[in-house]
Amino acid sequence: LTLTTNLDVLFYQYLYGNELLTYLLLHYHHTVDEIARPDARPFAKLTSVSLCGMVLLPDPNLLVYWVPLPPKVTQLVLRHQYIDHFEFTSERETCSMPPLQFLQGANALTFRHPDPGFTLTLRFLEVHNCDFGLGDLSALLGLGYCNNLEVLRLTKLGPPWHWRNEVDWSVFGTTLNRCLPRLYDFTFSLWWDAGDEHNTEDLEDSVGGLQAHPRVEFLRIDLGLVIHSFHQNAVAELLALPSMAIPRILKLLGLSNANPVFLKRVAQLWLADECRNVLGELMEALSECKFLCITTYYQPTEETLWGLEEIGTSLAEKGESFGVSWVKGGNDDDYEYLVLID
Predict the structure, then answer these.
(1) Averaged confidence pLDDT in the chain
(2) What does the pLDDT read at residue 110?
């Protein structure tokens, strides 16, 4: 791999136990020969990196390791990993690789801060089915590596108990506003179905601050992260989202991991005598939004599905698209994605 100086896209799927050696390959090295061209260095033209573990072990204490942040890369995808921290790769004076006994010494090879002149090229970051903390994410955002990020997709993050109980959600959106001024596409979902149990839960304090972001137009987020979806006031909280939690300039809103209690309540309000269209009221408040998508881990009842279909018909008459999908299956990527309403 280190001889592939023209490589611009790298997708690497590895067995656990080989990740440190794999990541070391991504370190950029100057050659000893002073007349060598800079673009002849390994991975000098790399623009897209995808690192995917093949098996996610049940015990996060068994594997803890770092993730490299290569320079000049515009797209970085991380899947099925336990992330201890992020490290910046750095140019070295020689092209020699360290001996194997030093592979565990990540601090000797990488840096927590980018070198002066580090080019901020990253535009797309996806982290899926990974265990890591908000502290590491906040540190990464604060170092400037993601300042030009336009698309951020954080899905199935774990462990869920950490994100639920140890995060100050009231300032989460404010952090994104400050650190990611160019962000326009944001996806955020926790690993609620970890351990083969589909535990849809709500945060005690909902995510705040996103409504002030000046650019986010595409938002997909767990319903339980923005409202107390099991509460009697769930509908009122939903309608308050444009002023409390989500940008009014949205063109697409996706609400993932919706619980059956909430969906039933929405359908019943439509099926009642007053035929109240709660989702239609939300779309009216989001005047630029034309796409509303809902996903759930639970199969809706026939009555609920009927009510949602009627709501979809009503929205379609206004030129708005509404979809409901059921994620059926296991706790990882082994599932069926069934479109119930399109």
Answers:
(1) 77
(2) 46
Which H/E stretch holds residue 77? Answer: strand 75-79
Question: Which tokens belong to 334?
Answer: 């082994």
CA 278, CA 275: separation in Å to the nearest integer?
A: 9
What's the CA gap between 99 and 70, in Å, rounded? 21
Amino acid identity, position 271: L
Beta bridge partners of 314: none
Q: What is the extent of the structural domain holding 253?
A: 150-341
Q: Where are the alpha helices (DSSP H) in the chain?
A: 19-24, 134-142, 160-165, 172-179, 223-226, 234-239, 241-244, 260-271, 278-285, 302-316
What are the DSSP calls for 114-178, one per residue? PPTT------EEEEES-B--HHHHHHHHHTTTTTT--EEEEEEEB-HHHHHHS--GGGHHHHHHH
Is there a domain that residue 35 lies in? no
285 touches 248 (CB < 8 A): yes
Place 341 in a pLDDT band, splitting at 50, 70 and 90: confident
What DSSP state is assigned to residue 39? G
Q: Give how many domains the chain has, as a whole number.
A: 1
In a domain, 302, yes or no: yes
Which of 220, 243, 251 has the alpha carbon at shortest distance from 321?
251
Q: Is residue 165 one of the residues assigned to a domain?
A: yes
pLDDT classification of 98: cutoffs 50, 70, 90: very low
